[in-house]
Amino acid sequence: MGFEGEKREEGVVMANDFFWSYTDEPHASRRRQILSQYPQIKHLFGPDPFAFLKIWDNVRWDEPHATRRRQILSQYPQIKHLVGPDPFAFLKISGVVLLQLWTATFLQDATWLKILIVAYFFGSFLNHNLFLAIHELSHNLAFSTPVYNRWLGIFTNLPIGVPMSVTFQKYHLEHHRFQGVDGIDMDIPSLTEAHVVKNVVAKSIWVILQLFFYAFRPLFLKPKPPGMWEFVNFTIQLSLDGAMVYFWGWKSLAYLILSTFVGGGMHPMAGHFISEHYVFKPEQETYSYYGPLNLMTWSVGYHNEHHDFPRIPGSKLYKVKEIAPEYYENLDSYKSWSQVIYMYIMDRTVGPFSRMKRKLSTKANKSE
């Protein structure tokens, strides 16, 4: 076995011509030598001031999901049978809502440290699950009748502590219809965020507060007049908050709010905010995550599949990849949301500006 005894052709390099050395690392030595001779090179250190322009202005006309959806359906028309509501959505949501509200009442006399610990390691997972259930309901994936989904969304909203389910649907559907269109897709960070959030410290703060940016960005950049459903959402939510304080005290309500806040910041579950559309590879604008947290997040990690087929519930998105693997296996994807957060913070070439933008076309493809 092997190549012993075989005549080697002239100029051919074999694996055993190399050896490993763990003592001489050339780059650090050369760096010291160069800096001792040319100290002015230190003035070249720092981020690329034009990175913002290079990445932010990466404008595309084509929207990949509508195109890929047509291609997949022409080849695998059976995927249409996956479309429709999740029959178990109501039961799954109800269980999490009741568990989280009970936990809040249980902690009414707990210390603040205990409340914070339970909120981060337990409540945050429940509230983020509910946030993504609201995402599922925004696509009417619990009931065939849209108004039933809206009522269930308001119920799902209760442990989150802040009214958002109705407003979220308005903006999220535009994110699908006009993905990457600046001024319409409110998932794209503002110019102010892109200019300010450029270093490790700023990005760390941005990640911790990203839920606030996500929630308030639309209200400042593209405010929509509230309607009757926002009023209903607001009234029911404040009634629950008031009842929580009246019967169980401020600590119970604080637990719910903390669970929402920490679960949307420097937390593994919140990694999907970054992993979904922040561009780490210039030619790809949407990324899927195929890790275990999909079990707790309505499979939102299957994000390419979700944008390709937004009317297929999360519980069936894995089947899209199974039926048409050749359309997804060659795309970059993630297995860890925590790693995505780390890469986002530490990579100088990535920031709020790392998004693919496109101009609004009169023939804009609609993903909804």
TrEMBL record:
Subcellular localization, as worded in the UniProt entry: Endoplasmic reticulum membrane; Membrane
Q: Which keywords does this Swiss-Prot/TrEMBL entry list?
A: Endoplasmic reticulum, Lipid metabolism, Membrane, Oxidoreductase, Transmembrane, Transmembrane helix
Please give the InterPro entries that the UniProt record associates with this protein.
Answer: DES1/DES2, FA_desaturase_dom, Sphingolipid_d4-desaturase_N
Family annotation (Pfam families):
FA_desaturase, Lipid_DES
Query: Could you tell me the membrane topology recorded for this protein?
Result: Multi-pass membrane protein
Q: Might you report a single GO cellular component term?
A: endoplasmic reticulum membrane
SMART domains, per the entry: Lipid_DES (SM01269)
Q: What class of enzyme is it?
A: oxidoreductase
- E.C. no: 1.14.19.17
Residues forming the Sphingolipid delta4-desaturase N-terminal domain are 13-51, 54-89
Keyword Endoplasmic reticulum included in the entry's annotation:
yes
Q: Which biological process terms from the Gene Ontology are attached to this UniProt entry?
A: ceramide biosynthetic process
Question: From which domain of life does this come?
Answer: Eukaryota
Chief place of localization: endoplasmic reticulum
Query: What is the catalytic activity of this protein?
Result: an N-acylsphinganine + 2 Fe(II)-[cytochrome b5] + O2 + 2 H(+) = an N-acylsphing-4-enine + 2 Fe(III)-[cytochrome b5] + 2 H2O
A molecular function (GO) term:
sphingolipid delta-4 desaturase activity
Family of this protein = Belongs to the fatty acid desaturase type 1 family. DEGS subfamily.
Q: What does this protein do?
A: Sphingolipid-delta-4-desaturase required for the biosynthesis of delta-4-unsaturated sphingolipids and derivatives.
Protein name, UniProt field = Sphingolipid delta(4)-desaturase DES1-like
